[in-house]
Amino acid sequence: MLEIEKIFKRIIQRVNINLRDLAFDVSPFVTGHIDLEQMNKFYAFYGITSDIPLDLKLIHSSLAGSYFLGKCRVTDSLLYKSDIRGDELKRKDSTFQYKNFNIDLTEDELIDIKTSALIKTLVHNYSHDPETPERFFIKNTLSLDYANIHGSPSDGCFLGPFATVDLTTMRDCVIGAYSFIQAGEINHLEVNPGTIWVNSPGQFNFLYQYPADKLQHYIQVTAGGYPQGLLIDFIEEHEESFNRVFDAANLENTIKVPETASLDRYAVVLPSTKICENVLVAQRAYLENSYLGRGSNAQENCFIINSHLQGCNVTAHGAKIVEADLQSNVFVGFNSFLYGKQGSRISIGTGSIVMPHTIIDCKESLSIPADTLLWGLITNQAELEMNSIQLDDLRKINTSTNQGNMHFEGHGASFVEAFRHRVNHILEANGAFFHEHNNNVKGHAQNNRKLSLNTIQPFLFGEMQGVYPDITILPQG
Amino acid sequence: MNKYTVKDLMVPISEYATVPIGTTLFGAILALEEAQENFDHGKYQHRAILVLDDKNKVVGRLSQLRVLNAMDAADNYSRYEQLKIFKFSDTHIEKVSEKDRLARKIFTEEALKKVAKKLVNEFMQKPNPDEYVAETSAIDMAIHKMAAGAHQSLLATRGDEIVGVLRLSDVFAATFHTLKELEVV
Q1: Whole-number Å distance between alpha carbons of A381 and B63
Q2: β-strand A280-281 against A372-374: which pairing, if any?
Q3: The pLDDT of residue A451
Q4: Please, what sign has the CA dihedral across residues A127, A21, A116, A223?
Q5: Residue contact A407–B83, C-beta within 8 A
Q6: Which CATH number covers residue A168?
Q7: Which residues does chain A have within 8 Å of residue B88's beta carbon, measured at their own beta carbons?
């Protein structure tokens, strides 16, 4: 048996042990899902920049096609085409504020991945757990295609395809396909596919659950089979363009990028696309015939096609925008799928918030007014009315409400302000507000221009085929 | 005084109402009726149905109250369960349930037929760890578990196998007979 097979089997066993209380067996979902014998064909790569601590320890792992930035340790794991982005980790001597605690950090925070398999997964942000402020751990965890582990330490969990866990420590949980969870802490929880849950105890509680039969059209995963559905088909249609950027050693920029913006070397940009100042385009983003106005961003695994983003638009990890016109300051959450068509475009007014994991798939033009909150599945005007609310109306809610499959309880104003604050923070961190009149405070858009990339290779033959040698990378001896 | 064990009082699993997982609610009620007809020990009727997996292992229990819940909630039962899991308050769940109740009638031909076709999987309760008791245990242990957990019955085990059901009614009857024998004045 190849060493990589032993690593993978051990991971599956560890995850299953953690999930035994839920009687959940991950084996049928992952066995055969990736071809372990092909893992020697993909190189891994890491970023170097003077602004982010360089400290990588890669031990007894397979890292095919994965990317690392910042302080990361990977042990006994299998990472396939995953992005481990440590550019927002907390720094030594800084203070992490959690409720009434001011927690001083004595060392740089570390992303610590152990006995885990992450397939096409994004790991980003930092640990929001006050009990582990210097260690963003991912242990005994298995995640499938296009999952996002965002600021969420994890122990003994399974994330289905397109699942996102945001700012939440999770232990022994199963997160179904296309679910989004932001709840601070969850334990021994099995979340059905298509569950969108944002909970801040004492403040607000938002829940939407996709109708199971309708979600299957977009994503479904069954034991023993590969993930299927329109979301997978859509990505596969564009895969060839990514092969070109990953296969080429050097690529010439096909478009002009302003000095204050950054376009990642592993992004796809097709004509005729315009990138304005302070724009951030991350690796594995796909832009085609689109306009990204000042301060907008396209994060990992985003697709922006035939669309116009006026400015300061956040397109969060994995979001897809097709045939759409977004006015300024529109937030499009994780893995959302705004799927307009030629002749039936989607237009969204200023300041609107598209909740994470929203699908707008219309055969008629949809016009969404400014300052609207949108969620769930919207395929026509009637569903738009059912699955949206004006932010001013939401602010007035102080008890609870229910619209279709959406339930909200708590203070609407707190919910709106929390989102506004988060969006503003994302824009700031991404460098959207960089300006000489703003003290030239830089963000990722400016800092990433100074990033260079190195590649590392696995063993090509023999028992260790596809596994990388143990590697430690430090700035100097 | 008779020192009862669980085995002395339990109903053997072979005499209890059981259905395979995937049975409809109507099928489960028929199984309960059939088990009752074949069961002639004492005057107390079975009040629950055990749900078995394909290896004949007990994976759930369906009580009479659970069947009424199914009728009351119809399509919304699992929705209320989800709201509980995702930490919505009882006030909100009651508000939603009241809205649903006003929108539909329970005791109509159409509604009853619809409920009858639903599967037991949706409404059964998974046994909790404190609902098991070894068949060799003294009755004291069973009384303690029933009282502490407010259980109507316990699952009697032999090793990993469930071999019977100990009902509250049988434990109560045994206690009552013993008290009578003691001639308490």
Answers
A1: 44
A2: unpaired
A3: 82
A4: negative
A5: yes
A6: 2.160.10.10
A7: 205, 207, 400, 407, 409
Q: Which tokens go with A123? A: 């790991």
Query: Does A122 lie in the same domain as A174?
Result: yes
Global pTM value:
0.83
Q: Do B86 and A197 touch (CB under 8 A)?
A: yes
- Say which amino acid occupies A455: T
As given in the structure block, the two tokens for residue A71 are: 């302080």
Q: Which residues of B are less than 8 Å from A402 in CB distance?
A: 92, 95-96, 99
Inter-residue contact A388 to A409 (CB < 8 Å): no
Clarify whether residues A12 and A50 are in a common domain: yes
CA A400 to chain centroid, in Å, comes to 30
Whether A199 and B89 lie within 8 Å, measured CB to CB: no
How many other C-beta atoms lie within 10 A of the C-beta of residue B47? 16
- R_g of chain A, CA atoms, integer Å: 21
3-state secondary structure of A111: strand
Q: Look up the ipTM and state it.
A: 0.91
Amino acid at the residue A122: L
Pairing of strands A262-263, A204-209: unpaired
- Cα R_g (chain B), whole angstroms: 19
Q: Report if residue A210 sits inside a domain.
A: yes
Interatomic CA distance for residues A232 and A177, integer angstroms:
12
Q: Are A44 and A456 in contact (CB under 8 A)?
A: yes
Q: Is residue A97 part of a domain?
A: no
Asked whether residue B74 carries a pLDDT value surpassing 70, the answer given is no
Q: Does A185 touch chain B (CB under 8 A)?
A: no
Listed as ranges, residues in chain A with pLDDT below 70 are: 249-251, 253, 436-438, 477
Domain containing residue A82 = 3-92+102-234+451-473
Residue type, A46: Y
